[in-house]
Every structure is written in structure tokens, then in C-alpha cells.
Amino acid sequence: MNPSTTILITGASSGIGATYAERFARRGHDLVLVARDKERLDALAERLRADSGVAVEVLQADLTQAADLAAVEQRLRDDARIGVLINNAGMAQTGAFVQQGAEAIERVIALNTTALTRLAAAVAPRLAQAGTGAIVNIGSVVGLAPELGMTLYGATKAFVLFLSQGMSLELSPRGVYVQAVLPAATRTEIWERAGMDINQLPEVMEVGELVDAALVGFDRREAVTIPPLHVADRWDALDGARQGLISDIRQANAAERYRQPIGQ
Ligand SMILES: NC(=O)C1=CN([C@@H]2O[C@H](COP(=O)(O)OP(=O)(O)OC[C@H]3O[C@@H](n4cnc5c(N)ncnc54)[C@H](OP(=O)(O)O)[C@@H]3O)[C@@H](O)[C@H]2O)C=CC1
Ligand SMILES: N[C@@H](C=O)C(=O)O
Q: Does 92 contact ligand 2 (Cβ within 6 A)?
């Protein structure tokens, strides 16, 4: 990737986003860092400028707020230097589905799906026009596993995977790389913010290991990168089975098992 490409990272004030910022700064890229906590963003920006000599701009935004989201969209549309979007900002949710209140539902969907989709949609036409660039969407293995007990959060992450796969099919022929990254439990603040104790989890990946693995997938131009999945064939088999369904599910007549017996 051209080192003059600027990378815009959402959720850059901590965890996975801050680690992406550090790694891309080391690669010599200028950065635009987006999150709500300006003090933390400023401190990170100052450190990255000093350590790596790159230009780092801070864009304070609450991506669940219309005006802030619109400002980041505008920046992605207008700034031709930005060639990569790391669509990372997200929040988790705890509790059973029946315990979710309207406000919490709105917030998690607004951040994990609406903002992510709108930012991708803001930058994609310009990248497609230029025939280059990349969009990285951070999903989660929870989006593959309703059994993990995070129904609402997992649903937003299933959305991220579907969106990324569709975007990849549409945009890769136009020169734009789209990657879905699916971490499993990773040591960041997301757990505490959602009121969960990370120490209760059996397996937790360190954030540096997660982002470095995601970047190996990025450099290989993988469409879906699942750092904790050791046997890559398992994903290939799952996705292959899904693709195998496509011709089967496009039928004009209901399947035999759904037909009413004649006379009833
Ligand atoms: N850690 C894990 O176990 C896993 C994480 N993920 C995903 O990784 C992504 C990053 O999370 P992670 O680094 O773990 O968690 P963190 O809580 O450390 O980071 C979340 C980031 O999102 C920002 N953010 C939160 N709310 C908003 C908002 N309303 N507007 C703008 N920015 C916001 C936070 O900054 P600020 O508070 O300053 O706004 C912070 O920079 C998320 O999408 C998450 O779902 C996926 C699988 C596993
Ligand atoms: N962020 C985690 C849940 O809170 C996950 O996706 O595993």
C-alpha cells in the first residue's frame, strides 16, 4: 500500500483501534483518529507523532449522534488523501434479550451497524472511482454464534459480516479491498464498559496479537480474517456450504415438506 495513504480509524482512543493506529503509524501512514474522548485521542496522537514522525489528526465524534456522524462522513467523502477506513468503533451489550431497553438497543445498533455502514458508504464511491483503497470492518466471532449468549450484540456483528461480504463482492472488481475482521475475546476495555468481567473468560487474546494477525490478513487481501481460528478449513467449509445453498434456495415452488396434503 502506498505509504502516502492516510488511514482513518474509528474507535481509536483505546483497544483495537488504538493498536491499529500504532501499527499503521509504524508503517509510516498519516492518521485521522476518531472517537469521543478527545483527551485520550490527543495523547495518543502526540505519542505517535513523536515515535513515528507521521501526521496525526484528531476528530472528536460521537458516532451515535447525527451531526458528528455526518461530519465524519463528509470528511471521508471529501479528503482524497484518506485511502483506508478502519471501521472499528463498537460497543458490547450484556444481559438477556428480554432485559434490553429501547435506549440500549438503539445505541448498540446505531454504533455497531448504522454508523459503520454509513461511514463505509461515504467513502466507498470515492475509492471505487479512484480504483484503489480499503475498508476494514471489525466484526466478531459472536456474530457466528448465537449460542454465546449476546443476542443483540451478535446480531449487529452478523450484520457486519454480511455487509462486508456483499461490499467485497461489489467493490473488489473495482479495485477496493474490503476485509471483515472477526476477533474473539480480546483484552480491551469493551468488557468493563459493558459491565463484564474479562477474568471470567476462559481464553482471551492480547490486543497486539489480534491486530498483528488482522494485518497479516490485510496484507494478504483476505476477505474474512478470523485471528483465533486455527483451522482455516473450518471457515472455508462453512462459507462453502453457504454458497452451496444459493441455487437450492432460489426455487419457484415450496418444498415438498411444506405442501398441504390435498383435501385438507
Ligand atoms: N475486545 C473484544 O473482545 C472484541 C472486540 N470486538 C470489536 O472490536 C471493536 C473495538 O472494540 P475494543 O477495542 O475491544 O473496545 P474498546 O472499548 O477498547 O474500544 C472501543 C472504541 O470505540 C469508541 N467508541 C465507543 N462508543 C463510541 C461512540 N458512540 N462514538 C465514537 N466512538 C465510540 C471508544 O472510544 P470513546 O469512548 O473515546 O468514544 C473506543 O475507542 C468493536 O467493534 C468491538 O465490537 C470484536 C470482538 C471481540
Ligand atoms: N466484544 C466482545 C463482546 O463483548 C466480543 O465480540 O467477543
A: yes
- The whole-model pTM stands at 0.97
pLDDT-derived band at 264 (thresholds 50, 70, 90) equals low
Fold (CATH) for 6-258: Rossmann fold (3.40.50)
Is this complex's ipTM strictly greater than 0.90? Answer: yes
Atom of ligand 2 nearest to the CA of 93: 4
The ligand that comes nearest to the alpha carbon of residue 204 is 1
Give catalytic status of residue 153 as yes or no: yes
User: By the 8 A CB rule, do 144 and 183 touch?
Assistant: no
> Which residue type sits at 263?
G
Ligand nearest to the CA of 210: 1
Enumerate the β-bridge partners of residue 56: 31
The ranges assigned to domains in the chain are: 6-258
CB 207 within 8 A of CB 16: yes
